[in-house]
Amino acid sequence: MKKLLPVLVGFTFVACNSLAQDAKPPVRIAIVGLAHDHAMGFIPRIRGQQDVQLAGIVETNQVLIARYSKRFDLSSNLFYPSLEELFARTNVQAVATFTSTFDHARVVKACAAHGVDVMMEKPLAVNMKHARAIQAAAKKSGIQVIVNYETSWYPGNQAAYTMVHDEHQIGAICKIVFHDGHGGPKEIGCSTNFLAWLTDPILNGGGAINDFGCYGADLATWLMDGEKPISVFAVAQHLKPDVYPKVEDDATIVLTYPKAQAILEPSWNWPFNHKDMEVYGQTGYVFVPQPNLLRVQTAKNPNETEIVPPPVTGANADPLSYLAAVVRREIKPTGLASLEVNMIVVEILDAAHESARTGKQIKL
After folding, report:
1. Can you tell me whether residue 154 is helix, strand or coil?
2. Does residue 121 have a pLDDT over 80?
3. At what angle are helices 62-72 and 39-47 packed, to 10 degrees?
4. Which CATH superfamily includes the segment(s) 151-313+332-363?
C-alpha cells in the first residue's frame, strides 16, 4: 500500500521562500579544486539557483581547467592559481572545496585567515589530526565549516528522522543498518584525476571505509542525537587487489552504543549503486530504500506501508541553499552537515581503520 504525505504547505512555502530569496543579493561562492568529480554536478547547480553566484575557481591543473571550461563554457577570468590571489581579487563569502580530502585542512586554514566560510565534500578530514586542525582554525576565526553529503538532502532520510525523533513512531532506536557504495570508482567511470587521490591511503585516508563509511557514520551520529559510540569494530577486505592495491574496497563496521547498535557496510563491490538506511526501534521500523521512498511498519500500523515523503523546502533542500543560509547567518549548522557531528564521524573512521588493522574492538 502506497501513501502520499500532504505537500500543499510545502508548495506554499517554496513560493514565499523564493520571493524572499529574490530580494537578497546572491551569496558569492568560489570553488577550490576540480579534482573531485562531484564538481561536475555542482557547477550547473550553482547556475540554476538565484541565491548564489560563482565568483571564481581555484585550480592549477591545466587539464582540469580545459575540461571544465569546455564542458561548462567557463570564462578564463573565473580561474585563479591560488586562494591568496582569489581573495586579493574577489570578495567571496564562501568556498566550496573539491580537492582531495587531505587538502581540506589546508583550505580551511587559508579561508579562516580571511573570514570565509567553507563547505567541503564528505568526509571532513583524512584523520583526527586534520579534523582537529580544522576545528581549531574554525573556532579561532569564527568561520562556519560544513560538510556536504548527498544523503543529507534526501527527503526520505529527513522524513525518517521526523518519524523517529519528533513523532516517536517506532520507539527507541535499537539497530540501524546502512548499505553505501557502488561497483567501484574505476568501474563506474570516475576520472583519472579523481581516482589518483581517491585510491591513495594518504590523500583519501583510506578506500571504501572513508569514501562510503562516512555516510553511515554521519547518519548514525545524527539519529543518535550526537551520541558517540562506546566502541567500533571493523573488518576490511581487498576483494579486488589488482584494481585497488593500496586501499580496502570492502568493509563492515559495527558501532556499539549503550542501548543500540549501528552497522555500516561501505563497499566498492556492490552490483549497483547503494545508499539506503534501515532504522529499527522497539515497536517498529523505518526503511529508506530510495531517496524519495519510505517503508514503515509500526505497532499502530502492523502492515508495512510505503510512503512518498514531500519535497524538502528551504535551507535543507540542497547544499547550496544550506550554504547560502549559513553564510547569511540565517541558520547555525546543526546535524548532518555540522562540524560537531563530523568530528565524531572522523573519529569513527579512524577507529574503524585501527580495528581492521589490529583485529580488535576499539573503545572511544
Report:
1. coil
2. yes
3. 40
4. Dihydrodipicolinate Reductase; domain 2 (3.30.360.10)
Tell me the three cell numbers of residue 85: 590571489
| One-letter identity of residue 17 | N
CATH class, domain 12-148, is alpha beta
Identify which of 40, 78, 79 has the alpha carbon closest to the alpha carbon of residue 62. 79
H-assigned helices in the chain: 8-22, 39-47, 62-72, 83-89, 104-112, 128-141, 155-161, 192-198, 208-223, 319-327, 339-358
How does strand 231-237 pair with strand 250-256?
Answer: antiparallel
pLDDT digits (tens, 9 = 90+) for 41-58: 999 999 889 899 999 999
Q: Which three cell numbers stand for residue 159?
A: 522524513
Residues 6+ apart with CB under 8 A from 274: 179, 180, 181, 182, 267
Task: Give the 3-state secondary structure of residue 235.
Answer: strand
**Exposed/middle/buried for residue 11 (C-beta within 10 Å: 0-12, 13-18, 19+):** exposed
